[in-house]
Amino acid sequence: MAIKFGTDGWRAVIADEFTFANVRLVTQATANYLLREAGSGKIIIGYDNRFLAPEFARAVAEVLTASGFTVYLPSRAVPTPVTAWAIKHYQAMGALMLTASHNPPEYCGLKFIPEYAGPAVPAITSAIEKEIAAVINGGEVKTLNLDEARGRGLVRELEPEADYREYLHGLIDVEALRKAGLKVVVDPLYGAGIGYLEDFLRGAGCQVQAIHNYRDPLFGGDLPDPSARGLEELSRRVRETGAHLGLALDGDADRFGVVDGDGTYLTANQVLYLVLAHLIMDRHYRGPVARTVATTHNLDRLARAHDLEIIETPVGFKYIGEALREKGCILGGEESGGLSIRGHIPEKDGILATALVAELRAVRGRSLGEILADLHSSYGHLVNQRLDIKVDPATKERVLQELPDFAPAKVAGIPVTGRLTVDGVKLTLADGSWVLLRPSGTEPLLRLYAEAPDAGRLRLLQKEITTALRI
């Protein structure tokens, strides 16, 4: 069995590959990596609301303390962005987070977050994978009973919620929220974010109603994914209560979902567009903007109009985080629902993202749909869609072999003006349209992304690519 780190850590099915033995193995490999690179120190442990997550977290603590690390161990679930933020708050050397994010309930995952409080870059995950192989091939997995570890002072309690809320007060215009008196429905989708967003908004003077705000490892029989389908109840509740907004988090609260006051679901691309406009026009931020290759070019239009640079990265927030750290970007975002801003940690944070949306709604005093319509009027509009195409392994392998040579001169009759291969193959067209085909890093899928000036042209692009590659 080979344990590999995908786009966002190692994920596997509980009781199949995700076992206590393998969790200890990966933890020992991470400990060995850290001992070799930096020595022992303080490590944050976080976990979401999945089945056995608290028990897996204790197994992680037993291995880390046996190797001489001091661990901060919570008694309840902690969101991924809060776990990452805690690295800075407690001056730790990193964190281990147990989560499978928005994957199905039978999955769990484990990822290492380095000292810079953002996703581990490939050089780090590759080094940990080598340590995993070394442990499998004769290395030792050491454990220390937690009671004994506590007796040695190696286990400390992690209770970050109040401090994180206070920290958010320094990033969000709380006074604008107080004046607006927004009515908000919050849906943490049974996940690790329960209490974080609701309590922050209540403390900022909002009227808040929460749904799905208790632990359910089965996530109500669905995915903990703040998609349009996953937030149908939130949309209905917003309409019924006359709320200004519906705000949602995924299973570990690093991704966001947003519903306008009329119950309309906004895509992540639309939210990124709105938040960037808010940062530029209301907060007067200036600096580069980072987005993945799969994210809307509406951001490009807005950035160009204000003489801001766009930085395009491969898919994966680890690359966005790198741009935030090294390039001073005012916003980093991805179409799958990840967002962070300058001054915050270089990790996607659904709590911050939804709080920013509430701030935008409060500052502008208008619905998100109205604000979006103004942006379209001023900067133009591109329609986008992602198709998740399920294929058998043989078809996926064939397509991946053909992709390097896939370089048509035209798509749907429109000349190709650029070809980017930083992640899959992306073709940009003369009319501002683009298409991208890439394999999923976490699921057995091919993902086809497309953006065009109108829905009709979008469908033509999709049809031509799927026909040409026989998928």
Automatic annotation (TrEMBL):
<keyword id="KW-0460">Magnesium</keyword>
<dbReference type="InterPro" id="IPR005841">
    <property type="entry name" value="Alpha-D-phosphohexomutase_SF"/>
</dbReference>
<protein>
    <recommendedName>
        <fullName>Phosphoglucomutase</fullName>
        <ecNumber>5.4.2.2</ecNumber>
    </recommendedName>
</protein>
<comment type="similarity">
    <text>Belongs to the phosphohexose mutase family.</text>
</comment>
<dbReference type="GO" id="GO:0008973">
    <property type="term" value="F:phosphopentomutase activity"/>
</dbReference>
<dbReference type="GO" id="GO:0006166">
    <property type="term" value="P:purine ribonucleoside salvage"/>
</dbReference>
<keyword id="KW-0479">Metal-binding</keyword>
<dbReference type="InterPro" id="IPR005844">
    <property type="entry name" value="A-D-PHexomutase_a/b/a-I"/>
</dbReference>
<dbReference type="InterPro" id="IPR036900">
    <property type="entry name" value="A-D-PHexomutase_C_sf"/>
</dbReference>
<dbReference type="Pfam" id="PF02880">
    <property type="entry name" value="PGM_PMM_III"/>
</dbReference>
<dbReference type="GO" id="GO:0005975">
    <property type="term" value="P:carbohydrate metabolic process"/>
</dbReference>
<dbReference type="Pfam" id="PF02879">
    <property type="entry name" value="PGM_PMM_II"/>
</dbReference>
<keyword id="KW-0413">Isomerase</keyword>
<dbReference type="InterPro" id="IPR016066">
    <property type="entry name" value="A-D-PHexomutase_CS"/>
</dbReference>
<dbReference type="InterPro" id="IPR016055">
    <property type="entry name" value="A-D-PHexomutase_a/b/a-I/II/III"/>
</dbReference>
<feature type="domain" description="Alpha-D-phosphohexomutase alpha/beta/alpha">
    <location>
        <begin position="269"/>
        <end position="376"/>
    </location>
</feature>
<dbReference type="InterPro" id="IPR005846">
    <property type="entry name" value="A-D-PHexomutase_a/b/a-III"/>
</dbReference>
<dbReference type="InterPro" id="IPR005845">
    <property type="entry name" value="A-D-PHexomutase_a/b/a-II"/>
</dbReference>
<comment type="pathway">
    <text>Glycolipid metabolism; diglucosyl-diacylglycerol biosynthesis.</text>
</comment>
<dbReference type="GO" id="GO:0000287">
    <property type="term" value="F:magnesium ion binding"/>
</dbReference>
<feature type="domain" description="Alpha-D-phosphohexomutase C-terminal">
    <location>
        <begin position="409"/>
        <end position="466"/>
    </location>
</feature>
<feature type="domain" description="Alpha-D-phosphohexomutase alpha/beta/alpha">
    <location>
        <begin position="3"/>
        <end position="134"/>
    </location>
</feature>
<dbReference type="GO" id="GO:0004614">
    <property type="term" value="F:phosphoglucomutase activity"/>
</dbReference>
<comment type="pathway">
    <text>Lipid metabolism.</text>
</comment>
<dbReference type="InterPro" id="IPR005843">
    <property type="entry name" value="A-D-PHexomutase_C"/>
</dbReference>
<dbReference type="Pfam" id="PF00408">
    <property type="entry name" value="PGM_PMM_IV"/>
</dbReference>
<keyword id="KW-0597">Phosphoprotein</keyword>
<feature type="domain" description="Alpha-D-phosphohexomutase alpha/beta/alpha">
    <location>
        <begin position="163"/>
        <end position="263"/>
    </location>
</feature>
<dbReference type="Pfam" id="PF02878">
    <property type="entry name" value="PGM_PMM_I"/>
</dbReference>
